[in-house]
Amino acid sequence: MKQVFLTALGILALLKSYTQQAPDTTGYENRKLKIEEVNLVSSYYGQTGDHGAVTGGLGAQKLTDIANVFDIRLAKYDRKLRKHTFGLEVGIDHFSSASYDKIDLKANSSASWSDTRIYPSLTWTVENEKKGRSFGIGLSSSAEFDYHSFGANISFTQKTRDRNGEFSVRLQGYFDQVKLLTPIELRSGAGGGGGDGYDTDNRTTVAGSLSWSQVINKNLQVMVLADLVHQQGFLSLPFYRVYFNDGTVHQEKLPGSRFKIPLGFRANYFLGDKVIIRTYYRFYHDDWGITAHTANLEVPVKITPFVSISPFYRFYTQTAATWFAPYQEHTSTDKYFTSNYDLSEFNSNFLGAGIRLAPPKGILGMQHFNMIELRYGRYTRSNNMNANSLSLNIRFK
Known about the structure:
This protein is mainly beta. It has one domain (2-22, 40-396): Porin. The chain has helices spanning 2-14, 16-19, and strands spanning 34-49, 63-77, 83-97, 114-128, 133-144, 147-159, 165-179, 200-215, 220-233, 241-243, 249-251, 257-271, 275-286, 291-298, 301-304, 307-318, 346-357, 369-381, 385-396. The strands form two sheets. A 16-stranded antiparallel β-barrel has the order 1-2-3-4-5-6-7-8-9-12-13-14-16-17-18-19. β12 and β13 form a beta hairpin. The radius of gyration is 24 Å and the shape is globular. The model is unreliable at 17-28 and 190-195 (pLDDT under 50).
Protein backbone atom coordinates (compact mmCIF):
# COMPACT_ATOMS: atom_id res chain seq x y z
CA MET A 1 0.00 0.00 0.00
CA LYS A 2 2.98 2.25 0.68
CA GLN A 3 3.88 2.13 -3.03
CA VAL A 4 0.46 3.49 -3.99
CA PHE A 5 0.85 6.65 -1.94
CA LEU A 6 4.49 7.18 -2.95
CA THR A 7 3.42 7.08 -6.59
CA ALA A 8 0.70 9.64 -5.89
CA LEU A 9 3.19 11.97 -4.20
CA GLY A 10 5.52 11.66 -7.19
CA ILE A 11 2.80 12.76 -9.58
CA LEU A 12 1.96 15.66 -7.29
CA ALA A 13 5.54 16.90 -7.55
CA LEU A 14 5.52 16.55 -11.34
CA LEU A 15 2.34 18.59 -11.71
CA LYS A 16 3.17 21.29 -9.19
CA SER A 17 4.13 23.77 -11.91
CA TYR A 18 0.83 23.15 -13.69
CA THR A 19 -1.21 23.82 -10.55
CA GLN A 20 0.52 27.17 -10.07
CA GLN A 21 -0.68 28.49 -13.42
CA ALA A 22 -3.41 31.10 -13.28
CA PRO A 23 -6.82 29.95 -14.54
CA ASP A 24 -8.26 31.37 -17.76
CA THR A 25 -11.23 33.53 -16.75
CA THR A 26 -11.79 35.33 -20.04
CA GLY A 27 -14.19 32.75 -21.50
CA TYR A 28 -12.26 32.83 -24.78
CA GLU A 29 -12.26 29.52 -26.63
CA ASN A 30 -8.51 29.05 -27.01
CA ARG A 31 -7.41 27.41 -30.26
CA LYS A 32 -4.12 26.39 -28.69
CA LEU A 33 -3.85 22.94 -27.17
CA LYS A 34 -4.19 23.13 -23.40
CA ILE A 35 -4.47 20.73 -20.50
CA GLU A 36 -8.11 20.16 -19.58
CA GLU A 37 -7.85 17.45 -16.92
CA VAL A 38 -5.28 15.12 -15.37
CA ASN A 39 -6.17 12.07 -13.29
CA LEU A 40 -4.10 9.65 -11.30
CA VAL A 41 -5.65 6.49 -9.86
CA SER A 42 -3.57 4.20 -7.66
CA SER A 43 -5.11 1.04 -6.25
CA TYR A 44 -4.36 -2.06 -4.23
CA TYR A 45 -6.26 -5.36 -4.51
CA GLY A 46 -5.71 -8.42 -2.33
CA GLN A 47 -7.55 -11.73 -2.75
CA THR A 48 -7.75 -15.07 -0.95
CA GLY A 49 -9.69 -18.27 -1.65
CA ASP A 50 -9.40 -22.06 -1.95
CA HIS A 51 -10.62 -22.86 -5.48
CA GLY A 52 -7.56 -22.14 -7.62
CA ALA A 53 -8.26 -22.93 -11.27
CA VAL A 54 -4.56 -23.57 -11.96
CA THR A 55 -4.78 -26.58 -9.64
CA GLY A 56 -8.10 -27.86 -10.98
CA GLY A 57 -10.53 -26.09 -8.65
CA LEU A 58 -8.65 -26.84 -5.43
CA GLY A 59 -5.86 -24.83 -3.82
CA ALA A 60 -4.92 -21.24 -3.05
CA GLN A 61 -6.37 -18.27 -4.93
CA LYS A 62 -4.12 -15.79 -3.18
CA LEU A 63 -3.36 -12.80 -5.40
CA THR A 64 -2.22 -9.22 -4.89
CA ASP A 65 -2.29 -6.46 -7.50
CA ILE A 66 -0.97 -2.90 -7.38
CA ALA A 67 -2.16 -0.69 -10.22
CA ASN A 68 -1.36 2.86 -11.28
CA VAL A 69 -3.27 4.63 -14.04
CA PHE A 70 -2.31 8.07 -15.32
CA ASP A 71 -4.53 9.86 -17.78
CA ILE A 72 -4.36 13.32 -19.28
CA ARG A 73 -6.86 15.12 -21.49
CA LEU A 74 -5.93 18.05 -23.73
CA ALA A 75 -8.35 20.21 -25.69
CA LYS A 76 -8.45 22.90 -28.36
CA TYR A 77 -11.00 24.55 -30.65
CA ASP A 78 -10.61 24.66 -34.43
CA ARG A 79 -11.68 27.47 -36.77
CA LYS A 80 -15.22 26.08 -36.92
CA LEU A 81 -15.35 26.21 -33.10
CA ARG A 82 -15.43 22.44 -32.81
CA LYS A 83 -13.82 21.12 -29.66
CA HIS A 84 -11.04 18.56 -30.14
CA THR A 85 -10.18 16.48 -27.07
CA PHE A 86 -7.11 14.26 -27.00
CA GLY A 87 -6.72 11.65 -24.28
CA LEU A 88 -3.67 9.66 -23.24
CA GLU A 89 -3.95 6.97 -20.59
CA VAL A 90 -1.15 4.76 -19.35
CA GLY A 91 -1.75 1.97 -16.85
CA ILE A 92 0.75 -0.31 -15.13
CA ASP A 93 -0.33 -3.28 -13.00
CA HIS A 94 1.99 -5.51 -11.04
CA PHE A 95 0.56 -8.69 -9.55
CA SER A 96 1.83 -11.69 -7.64
CA SER A 97 -0.11 -14.93 -7.40
CA ALA A 98 0.51 -18.06 -5.34
CA SER A 99 -1.93 -20.01 -7.50
CA TYR A 100 -0.32 -19.07 -10.83
CA ASP A 101 3.00 -20.29 -9.46
CA LYS A 102 1.50 -23.80 -9.48
CA ILE A 103 1.76 -24.05 -13.26
CA ASP A 104 4.86 -26.00 -12.28
CA LEU A 105 3.76 -27.98 -9.21
CA LYS A 106 7.35 -28.72 -8.15
CA ALA A 107 8.77 -25.22 -8.50
CA ASN A 108 9.37 -23.06 -5.44
CA SER A 109 9.06 -20.00 -7.63
CA SER A 110 8.63 -19.50 -11.37
CA ALA A 111 8.06 -16.78 -13.99
CA SER A 112 4.33 -17.05 -13.39
CA TRP A 113 4.64 -16.06 -9.71
CA SER A 114 4.47 -12.38 -10.65
CA ASP A 115 3.97 -10.31 -13.77
CA THR A 116 3.59 -6.73 -14.92
CA ARG A 117 0.94 -5.55 -17.35
CA ILE A 118 1.28 -2.28 -19.27
CA TYR A 119 -1.77 -0.88 -21.06
CA PRO A 120 -1.60 2.50 -22.87
CA SER A 121 -4.49 4.00 -24.84
CA LEU A 122 -5.11 7.05 -27.05
CA THR A 123 -8.42 8.75 -27.84
CA TRP A 124 -9.49 11.65 -30.05
CA THR A 125 -12.96 13.21 -29.86
CA VAL A 126 -14.41 16.02 -31.99
CA GLU A 127 -17.43 17.77 -30.49
CA ASN A 128 -19.74 20.27 -32.18
CA GLU A 129 -21.16 21.93 -29.06
CA LYS A 130 -23.69 23.96 -31.07
CA LYS A 131 -25.22 20.83 -32.64
CA GLY A 132 -24.70 18.66 -29.56
CA ARG A 133 -22.85 16.07 -31.61
CA SER A 134 -19.51 14.32 -31.12
CA PHE A 135 -17.43 11.70 -32.86
CA GLY A 136 -14.48 9.80 -31.42
CA ILE A 137 -11.89 7.14 -32.19
CA GLY A 138 -9.45 5.33 -29.94
CA LEU A 139 -6.58 2.85 -29.89
CA SER A 140 -5.37 0.70 -27.00
CA SER A 141 -2.81 -1.96 -26.20
CA SER A 142 -2.08 -4.35 -23.34
CA ALA A 143 0.98 -6.49 -22.79
CA GLU A 144 2.19 -8.99 -20.20
CA PHE A 145 4.30 -12.16 -20.29
CA ASP A 146 1.69 -14.52 -21.77
CA TYR A 147 -0.83 -12.13 -23.30
CA HIS A 148 -0.79 -9.29 -25.84
CA SER A 149 -3.81 -7.31 -26.99
CA PHE A 150 -4.51 -4.54 -29.48
CA GLY A 151 -7.81 -2.65 -29.46
CA ALA A 152 -9.61 -0.03 -31.52
CA ASN A 153 -12.93 1.76 -31.06
CA ILE A 154 -15.19 4.30 -32.73
CA SER A 155 -18.06 6.23 -31.13
CA PHE A 156 -20.83 8.71 -31.95
CA THR A 157 -22.98 10.80 -29.61
CA GLN A 158 -25.97 13.03 -30.35
CA LYS A 159 -27.84 15.21 -27.84
CA THR A 160 -31.46 16.26 -28.22
CA ARG A 161 -32.32 19.85 -29.07
CA ASP A 162 -33.17 20.68 -25.45
CA ARG A 163 -29.95 18.94 -24.29
CA ASN A 164 -31.95 16.78 -21.86
CA GLY A 165 -31.40 13.57 -23.80
CA GLU A 166 -28.38 11.88 -25.35
CA PHE A 167 -27.93 8.88 -27.64
CA SER A 168 -24.57 7.12 -27.93
CA VAL A 169 -23.28 4.27 -30.06
CA ARG A 170 -19.86 2.64 -29.75
CA LEU A 171 -18.10 -0.16 -31.63
CA GLN A 172 -14.99 -1.84 -30.17
CA GLY A 173 -12.65 -4.55 -31.35
CA TYR A 174 -9.88 -6.38 -29.47
CA PHE A 175 -7.33 -8.63 -31.15
CA ASP A 176 -5.42 -10.80 -28.70
CA GLN A 177 -2.51 -13.21 -28.86
CA VAL A 178 -2.28 -15.79 -26.06
CA LYS A 179 0.93 -17.59 -25.21
CA LEU A 180 0.13 -21.28 -24.61
CA LEU A 181 1.79 -21.66 -21.23
CA THR A 182 0.47 -25.12 -20.26
CA PRO A 183 0.85 -27.00 -16.96
CA ILE A 184 4.31 -28.56 -16.88
CA GLU A 185 3.14 -32.18 -16.77
CA LEU A 186 1.10 -31.67 -19.97
CA ARG A 187 3.93 -30.26 -22.06
CA SER A 188 5.11 -32.46 -24.90
CA GLY A 189 8.12 -30.34 -25.84
CA ALA A 190 9.05 -26.85 -26.95
CA GLY A 191 6.60 -25.26 -29.33
CA GLY A 192 7.49 -23.40 -32.45
CA GLY A 193 5.13 -20.44 -32.35
CA GLY A 194 7.07 -18.02 -30.18
CA GLY A 195 10.63 -16.85 -29.80
CA ASP A 196 10.77 -18.18 -26.24
CA GLY A 197 9.63 -21.69 -27.15
CA TYR A 198 5.88 -21.33 -26.50
CA ASP A 199 3.19 -21.74 -29.13
CA THR A 200 0.59 -18.99 -29.44
CA ASP A 201 -3.07 -18.73 -30.37
CA ASN A 202 -5.45 -15.85 -31.07
CA ARG A 203 -8.80 -14.52 -29.99
CA THR A 204 -10.96 -11.70 -31.30
CA THR A 205 -13.61 -9.73 -29.42
CA VAL A 206 -16.11 -7.41 -31.13
CA ALA A 207 -18.53 -5.37 -29.03
CA GLY A 208 -21.30 -2.95 -29.94
CA SER A 209 -22.82 -0.63 -27.32
CA LEU A 210 -25.93 1.55 -27.37
CA SER A 211 -27.08 3.94 -24.66
CA TRP A 212 -29.80 6.51 -24.11
CA SER A 213 -29.74 8.98 -21.24
CA GLN A 214 -32.57 11.33 -20.33
CA VAL A 215 -33.16 14.08 -17.78
CA ILE A 216 -36.69 13.41 -16.52
CA ASN A 217 -36.84 16.44 -14.23
CA LYS A 218 -34.51 18.45 -11.99
CA ASN A 219 -34.25 15.50 -9.57
CA LEU A 220 -34.20 12.41 -11.79
CA GLN A 221 -31.87 11.25 -14.56
CA VAL A 222 -32.03 7.81 -16.19
CA MET A 223 -29.99 5.82 -18.68
CA VAL A 224 -30.62 2.62 -20.64
CA LEU A 225 -27.65 0.57 -21.90
CA ALA A 226 -27.40 -2.42 -24.24
CA ASP A 227 -24.36 -4.36 -25.47
CA LEU A 228 -23.75 -7.17 -27.92
CA VAL A 229 -20.40 -8.95 -27.54
CA HIS A 230 -18.98 -11.74 -29.70
CA GLN A 231 -15.72 -13.57 -29.03
CA GLN A 232 -13.98 -15.95 -31.39
CA GLY A 233 -10.78 -17.97 -31.10
CA PHE A 234 -8.89 -19.49 -28.17
CA LEU A 235 -11.13 -18.67 -25.17
CA SER A 236 -9.68 -21.13 -22.65
CA LEU A 237 -6.82 -20.33 -20.31
CA PRO A 238 -3.98 -22.69 -21.24
CA PHE A 239 -2.56 -23.18 -17.72
CA TYR A 240 -5.88 -24.13 -16.05
CA ARG A 241 -6.01 -27.81 -15.08
CA VAL A 242 -9.11 -30.02 -15.04
CA TYR A 243 -9.08 -33.33 -13.12
CA PHE A 244 -11.46 -36.01 -14.41
CA ASN A 245 -13.25 -38.61 -12.26
CA ASP A 246 -10.74 -41.24 -13.38
CA GLY A 247 -7.87 -39.25 -11.81
CA THR A 248 -6.38 -38.01 -15.08
CA VAL A 249 -5.42 -34.36 -15.56
CA HIS A 250 -6.26 -32.27 -18.62
CA GLN A 251 -5.92 -28.74 -19.90
CA GLU A 252 -9.07 -26.60 -19.73
CA LYS A 253 -11.07 -26.78 -22.97
CA LEU A 254 -13.88 -24.35 -23.82
CA PRO A 255 -15.79 -23.56 -27.05
CA GLY A 256 -14.12 -21.37 -29.65
CA SER A 257 -16.91 -18.77 -29.67
CA ARG A 258 -19.00 -16.91 -27.12
CA PHE A 259 -21.91 -14.49 -27.49
CA LYS A 260 -22.83 -12.15 -24.62
CA ILE A 261 -25.82 -9.85 -24.09
CA PRO A 262 -25.61 -7.37 -21.19
CA LEU A 263 -28.57 -4.98 -20.66
CA GLY A 264 -28.42 -2.22 -18.06
CA PHE A 265 -30.50 0.53 -16.45
CA ARG A 266 -29.14 3.42 -14.40
CA ALA A 267 -31.07 6.03 -12.39
CA ASN A 268 -29.75 8.95 -10.36
CA TYR A 269 -32.08 10.82 -7.99
CA PHE A 270 -31.02 14.12 -6.42
CA LEU A 271 -32.54 14.23 -2.96
CA GLY A 272 -32.04 17.91 -2.21
CA ASP A 273 -28.61 19.53 -2.39
CA LYS A 274 -26.75 17.10 -0.15
CA VAL A 275 -27.80 13.56 -1.13
CA ILE A 276 -27.72 11.67 -4.43
CA ILE A 277 -29.15 8.17 -4.80
CA ARG A 278 -27.36 6.32 -7.60
CA THR A 279 -28.82 2.98 -8.68
CA TYR A 280 -27.81 0.52 -11.35
CA TYR A 281 -29.15 -2.84 -12.55
CA ARG A 282 -27.69 -5.14 -15.21
CA PHE A 283 -29.01 -8.33 -16.75
CA TYR A 284 -26.49 -10.60 -18.47
CA HIS A 285 -26.83 -13.75 -20.55
CA ASP A 286 -24.44 -15.69 -22.78
CA ASP A 287 -24.52 -18.86 -24.87
CA TRP A 288 -22.26 -20.69 -22.41
CA GLY A 289 -25.25 -20.97 -20.07
CA ILE A 290 -24.48 -18.11 -17.67
CA THR A 291 -27.31 -15.81 -16.62
CA ALA A 292 -26.42 -13.06 -14.16
CA HIS A 293 -27.98 -10.13 -12.31
CA THR A 294 -26.17 -7.14 -10.83
CA ALA A 295 -27.73 -4.54 -8.52
CA ASN A 296 -25.72 -1.56 -7.32
CA LEU A 297 -26.57 1.26 -4.89
CA GLU A 298 -24.37 4.25 -4.03
CA VAL A 299 -25.45 7.22 -1.91
CA PRO A 300 -23.04 10.19 -1.97
CA VAL A 301 -23.76 12.52 0.96
CA LYS A 302 -22.29 16.01 1.35
CA ILE A 303 -20.95 16.51 4.87
CA THR A 304 -19.87 20.04 3.98
CA PRO A 305 -20.07 21.84 0.63
CA PHE A 306 -16.59 20.46 -0.13
CA VAL A 307 -16.49 17.07 1.60
CA SER A 308 -18.68 14.08 0.76
CA ILE A 309 -18.83 10.41 1.67
CA SER A 310 -20.19 7.70 -0.64
CA PRO A 311 -21.25 4.38 0.89
CA PHE A 312 -21.92 1.75 -1.78
CA TYR A 313 -23.16 -1.82 -2.08
CA ARG A 314 -23.26 -4.22 -5.03
CA PHE A 315 -24.97 -7.60 -5.19
CA TYR A 316 -24.22 -10.07 -7.96
CA THR A 317 -25.54 -13.54 -8.74
CA GLN A 318 -24.92 -15.92 -11.65
CA THR A 319 -25.72 -19.43 -12.81
CA ALA A 320 -22.94 -21.86 -13.77
CA ALA A 321 -21.62 -22.29 -17.28
CA THR A 322 -22.71 -25.49 -19.02
CA TRP A 323 -19.11 -26.70 -19.13
CA PHE A 324 -18.27 -26.20 -15.41
CA ALA A 325 -17.78 -29.03 -12.91
CA PRO A 326 -15.73 -29.18 -9.66
CA TYR A 327 -12.58 -31.19 -9.03
CA GLN A 328 -12.77 -34.78 -10.38
CA GLU A 329 -16.39 -34.51 -11.53
CA HIS A 330 -15.78 -34.25 -15.28
CA THR A 331 -15.92 -37.46 -17.32
CA SER A 332 -14.14 -38.63 -20.46
CA THR A 333 -17.34 -38.11 -22.49
CA ASP A 334 -17.38 -34.34 -21.85
CA LYS A 335 -16.67 -32.33 -25.00
CA TYR A 336 -15.73 -29.18 -23.08
CA PHE A 337 -14.56 -28.90 -19.48
CA THR A 338 -13.45 -26.33 -16.89
CA SER A 339 -13.07 -26.18 -13.10
CA ASN A 340 -12.66 -22.41 -13.04
CA TYR A 341 -14.94 -21.16 -10.26
CA ASP A 342 -15.40 -17.83 -12.05
CA LEU A 343 -17.71 -19.89 -14.31
CA SER A 344 -19.49 -21.62 -11.42
CA GLU A 345 -22.77 -20.69 -9.77
CA PHE A 346 -22.23 -18.11 -7.02
CA ASN A 347 -23.42 -14.93 -5.31
CA SER A 348 -21.16 -12.04 -4.34
CA ASN A 349 -21.34 -8.89 -2.23
CA PHE A 350 -19.20 -5.78 -2.52
CA LEU A 351 -19.56 -3.26 0.29
CA GLY A 352 -17.55 -0.14 0.98
CA ALA A 353 -17.35 3.64 1.05
CA GLY A 354 -15.42 6.55 -0.37
CA ILE A 355 -14.53 10.01 0.91
CA ARG A 356 -14.11 12.89 -1.53
CA LEU A 357 -12.61 16.35 -1.00
CA ALA A 358 -13.15 19.11 -3.59
CA PRO A 359 -12.58 22.59 -2.04
CA PRO A 360 -13.16 25.58 -4.38
CA LYS A 361 -9.64 26.93 -3.75
CA GLY A 362 -8.07 23.54 -4.43
CA ILE A 363 -6.31 20.97 -2.29
CA LEU A 364 -3.43 22.47 -0.27
CA GLY A 365 -4.23 25.86 -1.82
CA MET A 366 -3.45 24.68 -5.37
CA GLN A 367 -6.49 25.72 -7.39
CA HIS A 368 -5.99 23.26 -10.26
CA PHE A 369 -5.57 20.37 -7.81
CA ASN A 370 -9.33 20.28 -7.30
CA MET A 371 -10.26 16.77 -6.11
CA ILE A 372 -8.95 13.83 -4.13
CA GLU A 373 -10.95 10.66 -3.36
CA LEU A 374 -10.16 7.57 -1.33
CA ARG A 375 -12.30 4.42 -1.64
CA TYR A 376 -12.28 1.09 0.19
CA GLY A 377 -14.32 -2.02 -0.62
CA ARG A 378 -14.71 -5.53 0.81
CA TYR A 379 -15.65 -8.28 -1.63
CA THR A 380 -17.06 -11.66 -0.54
CA ARG A 381 -18.19 -14.56 -2.70
CA SER A 382 -20.33 -17.55 -1.76
CA ASN A 383 -17.70 -20.04 -3.00
CA ASN A 384 -15.24 -18.89 -0.35
CA MET A 385 -13.33 -16.17 -2.17
CA ASN A 386 -12.72 -12.83 -0.44
CA ALA A 387 -10.90 -9.64 -1.41
CA ASN A 388 -10.09 -6.13 -0.22
CA SER A 389 -9.54 -3.14 -2.50
CA LEU A 390 -8.28 0.37 -1.80
CA SER A 391 -7.98 3.14 -4.39
CA LEU A 392 -6.81 6.74 -4.45
CA ASN A 393 -7.97 9.14 -7.18
CA ILE A 394 -6.35 12.55 -7.67
CA ARG A 395 -7.66 15.04 -10.24
CA PHE A 396 -6.17 18.21 -11.68
CA LYS A 397 -8.38 20.47 -13.76
